[in-house]
What does this fold into?
Amino acid sequence: MAPVVHDLTGLRVLVISSEQIAERMAGPAIRALNLAQQLDDRGATVTLAVSAAQPGLADLLPGISLVTFGKPSARGFRELARGKDVVVTQPQRVDVGWGLYRSDARVIYDLYVPTFVETIAHLGAETGDPQVRAQRLEANRLEYSTALQLGDAFICASDRQRDLWLGALGEAGRLDLSLIRRDPQTEQLIGIVPFGVSDSPPPPLSGPGPIHGALVPADATALLWTGGLWNWFDPLSVLEGLAQARVDDPNLHLVVMGMRHPDPSWEEQAASRDLRQRSGELGLLAPGGGVVLLEGWVPYAERHRYLLDADAAVSSHFDTVETRFSFRTRFLDHLWCGLPTFTTPGGELAEAMIAAGAAEPVAEPVAEGDSAAWARSLRSVALDPGRLARMSASATSMADDYRWSRVTEPLARIVAQQGASSRTRTTSAPRPSRLDAARYALLLSRLRVQEQGLGSLASGFRRAIHKDGG
It folds into this structure.
């Protein structure tokens, strides 16, 4: 049965990107861009808000207005939302969340990344002042608890995430006694909108690819690590397994598509630093040594060329709470390009790919990783081309379920419902928690001093004096 297509004609929608949309961009920016395009395709009048406009960005978005907001503030975001029916955004700073709440727009929070579990996995693997790391985690928790309290509706990426957020929404007082009559399946409150892939297949390679004959020998078996190197991943097990497997098959090569986040303000994480160091210790970074580390991320519009020129993708992660609630967005490109995937199981999308034959499990995710299991799997990659072809066909078939036009239907439904609703809430209006707001402001001040020095407080105080309390 064809999905219902909701007509959003006449609705004014603001989509806020929490990360910069540019030539090289990470998942949150990619998602915001595609959500905006899909809502525009359904007839909404869409405005896309970014921190700073990049050259040529407006030309890529015909029909979509582009605005910039610079540094986020309660007043600035309330002005952005002025005249809009619906706002779609990821959780924001506590003060910014209240600014959006006090606008006339309905706010839909995109919870596809439960960042508080990512923050635990990230900061738990880093060294440094334990108090600073705890403050960062607490600030992140306050941002999400504010979003859960203030949002009119929500979207997430999977069934498992939906259960997580329903529990959190219940704790936040968002499930009340009228729910069984008003919204018995909570479909108006929270919908599942996975990450998606383009409705069009990737353009075929024309001429030589960027990997074979360029980064690795023309006859090499090229294994590709796509996406970022975050601390919840286990690239060292893949690396150690590769070193063992290359004793029997020196044609095995690993290409990492990007070591550093395109935003220079992002700190390189331990997973990336450790991979670089261990690759050098194993002698794998020498010419022909088996490992190629691309420092900058591949341009988003060029990523398909790397995936189409690889033989298989690899991904490994630890057994953590992050894995349980993850939705590995990098895997969507694997499906789009028909790239076979070898991965540790865990996470709803990885498990679905394994069940469909688009991916093969390497080893159960464990706290310390399993390089021996990776060595066994990598030795087998080039031995059965028919197996890779079957995996590729399964991946391409599975991609049909994740076209952006298909996965965004629940968002379109919720936008239509919210746009047709009055601003009056069905639950009791939240009251600002002065304690939470004060705690959050104090956390940000402490982190600013610890990271930038005492002089940074002066500019912070000047901004605070001119804030409107929104």
